[in-house]
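pasting for the record
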Amino acid sequence: MSADIRGVVAGTRPVDWVLAGVLTALGALLMAWNAVVPDTVVSAAIADGTMVHPMSSHSWLMVPAFALATVPVLWWRRNVVVVTGVALAAMVLHDLLFGWVTRCGAGLPLAFALAYLGAFALERARAWVVLGLTVLLAAAVLVLDATTGLEPLVLVAPVLLLVFGVGRAVRHRTAMAAELRLRTTELRRLRDDRAALDVADDRERLSRRLDGLLHDRLLQLSAAAESGATLGPAEARDLLAVIEDESRRTMDDMREVVGVLRGGDLALAPPPSVAHLDALLARGGRSESRLTVTGDPRSLPASVELSAYRIVEHVLDALSDRPDARIEVAVHFDDDALAIRVVGPAGRTSQVRAGVARARERAALLGGSVDLTVRHGRATALAQLPVPG
């Protein structure tokens, strides 16, 4: 049994109680009818052709004896071959003990259920063994059946084969679905690993950039300070003003680089920004995506632009990936904040919440926030990012 199917058929589940209970109840009702039906009714049924043989027994022991064949279905997930063999043995014993009675109304559904379960739960060779056992089970049901006799077996056998084929098809589909889930999980893990590697590369590159920036600016400031030794008071004041301006510009550049380093983002040249959101939506392959920009669009600090792009990217990754999914992204430029609103199909709630959690971490780096609401299958993520004055 493959690992994918083993996880599905492990243990005993509520549906097994329902299946075994229905088959047992059906058998109990039919056997109770066998016990109470008058011989005159049976004779009349034989006369009009609805039965083929007189009843051999009216014993109430038929009820628990038939349950020996149906109750083991409760444990089919442990070993369906054994369960089918027990059902066949119990049915043969029922034939030997009670002879001609009506069994087809409960015995044939039992055979059909076991054929399906065997096809679904087992590898090909053992599944065919179960199919053979269910054919024998159907024969044991019909060989001394007072209502039908053995003749319907030529019709029952193809039905068993059809049910068996349905079980194999469901097994194949279940295995494919499990494999797809596994591959999806693996792809997400690889995507996260790749992002982590890119983050490390990005930080190393930006660290080198910061080191080079500091080295160059300090050399420039040192040279300017040394040249001031021969200047007069007025010229020295002008030089100090230049040094102050250069120092402030150096600090601004350093803040920008450190802001990107704190964000831990993918190294891109140029770094993605709000202006790249159109390309991000087009890259998703969703035909119904729409971007709306309102307010006073302008260039923002690199850390804010990059964070806005990443927040939208995280939310889009978490939404449903159907090609026809309708995605709406609205960006509003305010005086002191950037508001982002993403609306789309929710898909799995856990996946949406995980994506929004990543977006929330990104917003928190800048002192912002991301709120999520899910209603009627649509998720709405609203992000607020402060913009330094």
